[in-house]
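lol ok so funny story. i was supposed to be doing the assay writeup but got distracted and ended up predicting the structure for this chain instead. priorities right. anyway since i did it might as well share w the group, maybe its usefull for someone
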Amino acid sequence: MNFFDTNKKEDCNGCGVCALKCPKKAISMKVDEEGFAYPTVDKNKCVNCNVCRDCCPNHEHNRESICESYVSINNNKDELRSSSSGGMFILLAKYVLAKKGIVFGVKYDEELKVKHDYIDNVSDIKKFQGSKYVRSEIGDSYCKVKEFLENDRYVLFTGTPCQCMGLRVYLGQEYEKLIICDIICHSNPSPKIFEIYKESIERKHNKEVNNILFRTKKIGWYSTESIVIFNDGTEIKESSFYKAFLSELLNRPSCHNCYFCSTNRFADFTIGDMWGIKEIDASIKDDNTGISLLCVNTDNAKRVFEEIKEKMYIKKIDINEAFKYNHHDNEKKNFNREKFFKKVANGKINQNNMIENLQKYSKNPLIIRIIRKAKRTIKKMITN
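and the output, tada:
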């Protein structure tokens, strides 16, 4: 059972593989009132071949991961400072680029929309660095990946677990020169809300936004503050979008029903922040400059890892211990989510008041917060 059977939005992660695989081009991805893309079938073109149902990757997969996990820190201090956590992405990217390969990642475009793109030189790696807490637009990236692989190029593809699984299904076969790296993903917030949020900042301050830095190391790795940079070079701290993201207010519905939120990974590498390092191993120096969790999940990844590990500090760690402090289970949606998106859809929440409403609706009612905190405490006690 998937989206084509249930027509439920929580059963679609928006990867777009169905549209790419449809032999009659009968499927297009349409953005709904919340800002998320879903497949729409043209009944006049559809021949009921069921390719869309068969290729949908959004379901449970039986694959045994051979994951080896490490605490990891890039030895290059400049690369570490420019990264969101411990600087693992840049090491993988430089490895592939040194082989005249192609790197796919997520960037802001000229309008600050979040999109997948590719690069072929080291100087452009900075486009993909830094966290973008918005669902990225895949565009034709899957097709481009296949094209480069068919031309015998090395390719590194990075994305969320569902996007990476979508790529595997689209390709339909293994490629020796393909390296897939997923992130430990919390959720995919709405591009529409991010766009309105950006416009809200611009109206409030009467100038254009040039960049939004989430969790920038200008403040420190542990910071939950965001920095907005305007075209005139001035900066402000404004974190209402990021905090709404953390409160589960802005997620795609499928993020609360994610099949890839576990220690059983389907990418070659998994990277993320190594939260809880003080509880896991207090002997590892934590100077607030960033530490990564690096998971080596496949034989292909092991081979690459052996070639780059001298460029990082590493210490092996139990995967279950590492994920105890990271995102490893589906989160409940914010109690206010439907109310918030309904008001966005009818225009009551708009460019004039988005910031205030992000702050207002981020918090669940007190009783819900108490119950959830109690459940987390009990679960932690049982685990320990």
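The two ends are 36 Å apart (CA to CA). The longest helix spans residues 366-383.
back to the writeup now i swear
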